[in-house]
Every structure is written in C-alpha cells, then in structure tokens.
Design goal:
single chain; mainly beta; three-stranded mixed β-sheet; 12% helix; globular
Length: 91
C-alpha cells in the first residue's frame, strides 16, 4: 500500500486456498519485490496495532510497473533465506 502504514510489518497479507494457489502458481512464482499486483479478494481481518490487513484472494494479476519497497521486513520469517523474494529486476 502507498503510503505504507508501518516499516516493521506488512500492510497486507493475501492468502489463497489450495485450488487458487495452484491456479495462480506460475504468476505468483514469477513475482518480484516491488512488482505491482492487482487482486480481487474478500476481507478476512482489517488489522490493528501492527497487524496486517488479511485478504483472501479470489483472483490476482500483474499490473504494469514497479514501486520501491524496503527488503523483507521479517528476516526471521520462513522465507528469510529465499533470494527470490529479495530480487528486483528493475534495479
């Protein structure tokens, strides 16, 4: 989100059920940090006090362009060692 609400936690958490994850796996695996993404989703939680807004995805698509965002916020997270999440083809 722009502007971001916190530098410490993500603004949005987008989750997928198994079928939707399978349907969009190629698109999701090809995403890079900063790449714009559009989505249609239902709100699961509006978030509060350092908690991200939780959306459940119904559809996703790539948007044109990139935006500068900071590297991974939670370096203790399960993907901290995954270089794919740190790459940015625009710079």
């Amino acid at each position: 989100m722009m502007p971001e609400e916190s530098e410490l936690v993500p603004d949005i958490m987008l989750t997928f059920d198994t079928d939707e994850a399978e349907k969009y796996k190629d698109l999701l695996n090809d995403l890079n940090r900063g790449q714009k993404l559009g989505f249609n989703a239902t709100i699961k939680s509006i978030g509060a006090d350092m908690q991200p807004k939780h959306f459940h995805a119904l559809g996703v698509w790539k948007e044109e362009g990139f935006m500068e965002i900071s590297p991974l916020m939670n370096l203790q997270g399960r993907y901290a060692e995954t270089n794919r999440l740190r790459r940015n083809r625009n710079g």
